[in-house]
TrEMBL record:
Cross-referenced InterPro entries: CobW/HypB/UreG_nucleotide-bd, Hyd_mat_HypB, P-loop_NTPase
Domain of life: Bacteria
GO terms, biological process: protein maturation
SUPFAM superfamilies: P-loop containing nucleoside triphosphate hydrolases
Listed GO MF terms: GTPase activity; nickel cation binding; zinc ion binding
Lineage: Bacteria, Pseudomonadati, Bacteroidota, Bacteroidia, Marinilabiliales
Protein name: CobW/HypB/UreG nucleotide-binding domain-containing protein
N-terminal signal peptide: none
CobW/HypB/UreG nucleotide-binding domain residues: 5-165
């Protein structure tokens, strides 16, 4: 059995920085945990983790949905962590398909949002925020206290049960609170017990299969037309 932590958030929200600061806040933790980053076309995070002495691997989805790719390869990720002798596996997803929330039942789920992304971002992000146990807000040092509180309120409108933490990805302020929180709540899981907290979108159309021509004549499968 292994401890799992799932972390998701929009691109450039500061996920990698928060994870590094969280791991660094616990003495000796970097030797016991591994990180797997899921992204779309490219990612330099593996090098960033290596600079801090953290073992990490990258999975690139290519032309697949990153979070579908994540779920399809989760068992392999757990096997990798066990082979390395880690007690904890942290997964980081870019959350590029916002309705795809790569959070698992009974596994600590963290969503990371950028305070500069706009006050309506929590409403637009879907299950990634709505089903998270903890929502971390980054870059809040660049906004006023009033803007911080409005952003917190917007998050709690979407997910009243979550804990909201403000963390500075540069200084690491607040990262120790996140570390204590997820480690306290963490439960060891067997891969056979794992289930998604929310189903993936049911979308398989001609464009999913590589079609590039535009027009109704080329649209097959699941499609939805706008009402104008």
């Amino acid at each position: 059995m292994i401890d799992l932590i799932t972390i998701a958030g929009p691109p450039s929200s500061g996920k990698t920085s928060v994870i590094i600061k969280m791991i660094d806040s616990i003495e000796g933790f970097k030797d016991k945990c591994g990180v797997i980053k899921f992204d779309c076309l490219s990612a330099l995070d593996e090098e960033q983790y290596a600079k801090h002495g953290i073992t990490a691997k990258t999975g690139l989805a290519g032309n697949l949905c990153p979070d579908h790719y994540f779920v399809s390869n989760f068992e392999e990720c757990i096997n990798w962590a066990k082979e390395k002798g880690f007690s904890t596996l942290i997964t980081e997803s870019a959350g590029l398909c916002n309705r795809c929330a790569p959070h698992l039942k009974n596994v600590p789920a963290i969503c990371i949002l950028d305070n500069l992304s706009g006050i309506n971002t929590p409403l637009k992000t879907g299950p990634m925020v709505k089903l998270a146990d903890v929502v971390v807000v980054t870059k809040s040092d660049l906004v006023s206290q009033a803007e911080k509180e409005v952003f917190r309120f917007k998050i709690q409108q979407v997910n009243p049960k979550c804990k909201v933490l403000f963390i500075n990805g540069i200084t690491g302020q607040g990262a120790d609170k996140l570390a204590r929180l997820v480690i306290t709540e963490n439960k060891k899981m067997e891969k056979e017990q794992m289930k998604l907290r929310f189903s993936m979108p049911t979308a398989l159309c001609s464009y999913c299969l590589g079609e590039t021509r535009v027009g109704e004549d080329f649209q097959i499968g699941l499609n939805r037309k706008i009402k104008l």
